[in-house]
Design a protein that fits this description.
- This protein has 299 residues and is mainly beta.
- It has two domains: 8-82 and 244-297, Roll (2,3-Dihydroxybiphenyl 1,2-Dioxygenase, domain 1); 91-237, 2,3-Dihydroxybiphenyl 1,2-Dioxygenase, domain 1, CATH 3.10.180.
- 14% of the residues lie in helices and 41% in strands.
- The protein has five helices and 16 strands.
- It has helices at residues 21-31, 44-50, 102-109, 176-186, 200-205; strands spanning 8-18, 35-41, 59-64, 72-77, 91-99, 115-122, 129-135, 141-147, 163-173, 190-198, 213-220, 227-232, 250-258, 273-276, 279-285, 291-297.
- Strands 2-3-4-1-13-16-15-14 form an eight-stranded mixed sheet, sandwiched between helices. An eight-stranded mixed sheet has the order 6-7-8-5-9-12-11-10.
- A hairpin with a 5-residue loop joins strand 15 (279-285) and strand 16 (291-297).
């Protein structure tokens, strides 16, 4: 039971800023088997909550995995102003989807509009976890991950479809220990541990030797199979996206469900209020200029 515990329960949604919402929808529906579950437009309450006013009236869609799990990808129509090559800036860099068979996912996607930037590979020689990476139509990075181990033992979710829900969100930071302490304390997360491993897609993007080892920390939430991965970048790639009155390109905000939003002492853009039916929500900017949206059920 998690109802009485303080902290973040789970990942609820990733918001992606997209230049062509129709093409984005086609890619996710036709190739990831995601389903559109809602269509609407950004209203004034949303703009106030997000701290972004240029998005007023922008079209957005909500997509969910084919198995209907209530973890969503929200695509917001937004002309891209600033171009940031993947893995060269701080903040939200990728979302990780659980898949039942990463090799089958690769066979499906290798001739799709998604650009394969990392073929299926074990994350370390002795690991049972195997992942691939793709670049989506809005320059968003998706990790697709499967495992042959007992999923409960390694805090991975189950899935009953080929490509399932988000279970990890990946953030780039410039000081791993300092950021880890901040998020453990401020967001009431738990530590699953630290890693120091080569990451092919990062070293390729950052022109590093393929044996370069990245320092990584994994933080967990109250519900199983919900994590935040912190990847430490060196100073050259520790840049913030330019702040503006608009979403940056790609993965722009992550929404988390919490038990009680009033337990969090954060500098929200607007006071927590009912933006979505039955939920109170608010947004704040983290130390790496990343947007967090917290929401809790109204009792």
């Amino acid at each position: 039971m998690t109802s009485s515990k303080k902290g973040i329960k789970r990942i609820k949604m990733a918001t992606i800023s997209v230049p062509d919402i129709k093409f984005f929808e086609e890619c996710y529906v036709n190739w990831l088997n995601y389903k559109v579950v809602a269509r609407s437009n950004v209203d004034k309450l949303m703009c106030n909550s997000w701290g972004l006013h240029k998005l007023l009236h922008s079209e957005f869609i909500l997509l969910s995995p084919e198995n209907g799990e209530d973890v969503f990808i929200r695509a917001v129509q937004n002309p891209v102003i600033n171009q940031y090559p993947p893995f060269t800036y701080l903040g939200w860099n990728a979302i990780e989807l659980v898949v039942s068979d990463v090799n089958l996912a690769y066979e499906k996607l290798k001739h799709s509009p998604f650009e394969v930037i990392g073929v299926p590979k074990k994350i370390s020689p002795k690991s049972s976890i195997k992942a691939m990476q793709v670049l989506g139509p809005a320059q968003e990075v998706l990790y697709l991950t499967s495992t042959s181990m007992d999923r409960q033992a390694i805090n991975h979710p189950e899935t009953n479809c080929l490509i399932g829900r988000i279970f990890i969100v990946v953030m780039a930071v410039n000081n791993l220990q300092k950021n880890k302490i901040y998020y453990l304390q401020k967001m009431m997360l738990e530590s699953q541990g630290n890693l120091s491993i080569p990451v092919d897609i990062l070293s390729s993007a950052q022109n590093k030797d393929q044996n370069y080892r990245y320092n990584i920390s994994v933080l967990t939430m109250l519900e199983r199979g919900n994590k935040i991965e912190l990847d430490e970048y060196d100073r050259k790639y520790s840049i913030n996206k330019i702040r503006s009155d608009n979403f940056p390109q790609g993965i722009s905000m992550i929404t988390f469900e919490v038990n009680d939003i009033d337990e969090f002492n954060l500098n929200f853009f607007d006071i927590p209020r009912e933006i979505y039916p039955g939920f109170k929500s608010a947004v704040f900017l983290g130390p790496n200029d990343e947007r967090w949206e917290l929401l809790s059920k109204i009792s």
